[in-house]
Amino acid sequence: MMIRKATAGLAAALLAAGCSAPKDAPNPDEPAVASLPGAASASAAPSGKAGDAVVDRQLRLGATDEEIDRAYAAYYACWTAHGVPSTKRGGVDGGPLLTYKLNPKKYQPAVDACADREPLNPPELDPQQNPDYWDNLRDELRCVREKGLPLQIVPGQQGLWVRPATDANYRKVRTDAAVQIQRDCELQAYAKTR
């Protein structure tokens, strides 16, 4: 799954708007759970200077939402400390990530300054570190499909993707029960590579 993956390319995947999707609908080209890593808004980030919080950026397989949120809050706090303010759109705080996406050229130096704080996917979820990654991903896919989730592998892309990419399917995979199914299937599929 791309949970901690929303992190390879997370900044590109999160908050991307699909051309035909409604304003608040997820992007059909976004991994199924890419929204989990950056779900914490900047308001959840610790206040203060970039060096205030010491958080392990290496996420572990099976990390809780709280662990993921803590790692991303520290990362986005670094962005804020380097001058990326939070942006609100439609009354919702999009945090510094939305600000960056609205003007990447202006804020890229701040993002670059924080590169050493970006959370890292568990090694098991990295095809470059896990030689069994694609087999594990197929095992994960079998598991989530057996439980009725509309996910599939997209050739050339890491993680599982919502297909068909409809609003109903996105809502289905983002329920608490579906997120737990995805987490359980991910653990079951990748734990055997440890």
From TrEMBL:
<keyword id="KW-0732">Signal</keyword>
<protein>
    <recommendedName>
        <fullName>Lipoprotein</fullName>
    </recommendedName>
</protein>
<feature type="region of interest" description="Disordered">
    <location>
        <begin position="24"/>
        <end position="52"/>
    </location>
</feature>
<feature type="signal peptide">
    <location>
        <begin position="1"/>
        <end position="25"/>
    </location>
</feature>
<feature type="compositionally biased region" description="Low complexity">
    <location>
        <begin position="31"/>
        <end position="52"/>
    </location>
</feature>
